[in-house]
Amino acid sequence: MSHWNAWESDEMDESVSVVRRWEDLDTDILVKILQSFDIFQLTSGIAHPYVYVDGRSDKTLTRVLKISLNLSKGNITSLIFHFNLYVSDEQLTYTAERCPRLRRLVLPAWNRIKKTGICKAIRMWRDLESLTMPSIANPPYLIEEIANNCRNFSELKVMGPFDIFFASTLAAYLPKLKVLSLRCSMLIKDALILILDGLQCLEVLNISHCLLIEAPTPPAPRRIIRELDQTILEKASRLREFLTCMEDSCIMCQRTKNDEGLLRWWGGRTLKGISRAIKLWETLKEAITVYTGLSPATFFTVLALALAVYYVISGFFGSSDNHPRPRSVEEQMQPLPPPVQLGEITEEELKQYDGSDPKKPLLMAIKGQIYDISQSRMFYGPGGPYALFAGKDASRALAKMSFEDKDLTGDISGLGPFELDALQDWEYKFMSKYVKVGTIKKSVPVTDEAASAGEAASAGEPAETKETDVSKPAEDGPSAHGAVETPPGAEANE
């Protein structure tokens, strides 16, 4: 395929040959041509290879990596992993060893890569210039590795919450960063100011569709900023490009605010939908002109006037107020009741608030903390895409971004660093968006001795106790009559 950089076509009436380039070819035709090749033909002898890896199966992913990386002969410069791909340390190390010339890397949003794995890979990628990565709770270890090993690094894209800690890390380790994209992320205002002040070499800053948050000192609540103030605009005036969009009418801004799903790296699906909508609109405008002879603006003006006349005339024959509105519309118009504090409840009691009873609030727990998510009923309520999380402590499922029943638990033991970071991001998001209404009651196991004492008491025979047993608790350890169970995942958090 590398020999097909250009081809010549002789014109019948002209002796001069016309050279045509691949980039001049129609996209649809180019796609058809590329689809006719298998992976061996696509990756063999490519001068500037570009590998896109998508798939959840370890076996499939490993096979694709082995074939493409071995045939590329170490010439791969761009590597993009699908945002929902699960990559292991072994797969990342294997990739790094065979892509020493890598310049651009896009990491998946949810993965099994540990600190040692990503740091080892970064040390091999000394030519790395651009990185797209998920937001992590402890960024210094990764950013410091980039600063120490990647001499030409200049572009960073972060997806997920961006706080002051992350901003100060970039200012400390990557002061010469030229391009920073925080598109479609939750951005703290003070972090934005720190970036503008601390990164003096920054040329391009993209905060389009960001949810800009002002986080005052607790207990003052957080506040969404809907317009950039003059101070930020003045600081950003030195940039070559400062990309912003905070319009309420913008689809992407709305999704950043409301969407509780996976992080969108490039907004790929959304952009495809918008592109289709634009094409449909263009087709509709052409059809209106062809079939009516009117411009689209005139056509819709006439249509609006016709509807207005219809409603005026129909008003003479009966009031529209007498027509009952659908029940669903009335329910949507009713304001949500204020959250009710529940205190400590058990996991079994929490199941009653899964949305099956519309009179009860919709609740969900993360790391034992219960939040009222009634305002996002369209996502977490019955029929919603994340309804299985409601009424449960879904900590493990959120950390792994799993929809399997076995992961719908608050047990977070055995999770990796990236998964714990992802869970913390979810916790921050819930803390900023929803009201905490209670906690999950921790279970206290009953020992055999206590159980036998309880049976004796129920039979009317008081159990014998020694004075030393009840006078004071043991100083060297927990009481012999019971031990409080260690919270799930405590070892991992430590």
UniProtKB/TrEMBL annotation:
Q: Where is the composition biased (Low complexity)?
A: 449-462
What GO molecular functions are on record for this protein?
A: steroid binding
Give start-end positions of Basic and acidic residues composition bias.
463-475
TM segments?
297-317
Region (Disordered) location = 446-494
Q: Which InterPro entries match?
A: Cyt_B5-like_heme/steroid-bd (IPR001199), Cyt_B5-like_heme/steroid_sf (IPR036400), LRR_dom_sf (IPR032675), MAPR/NEUFC/NENF-like (IPR050577)
Signal peptide position in this chain? none
Enumerate the UniProt keywords alphabetically. Answer: Cell membrane, Lipid-binding, Membrane, Steroid-binding, Transmembrane, Transmembrane helix
All copies of the Cytochrome b5 heme-binding domain together span: 345-441
The reply on keyword rRNA-binding is no
Q: Where in the cell is it found?
A: Cell membrane
CC annotations in GO:
endoplasmic reticulum; plasma membrane
- Family stated for the protein in its record: Belongs to the cytochrome b5 family. MAPR subfamily.
Name of the protein described by the UniProt record? Cytochrome b5 heme-binding domain-containing protein
Q: Which organism's genome codes for this protein? A: Hevea brasiliensis (Para rubber tree)
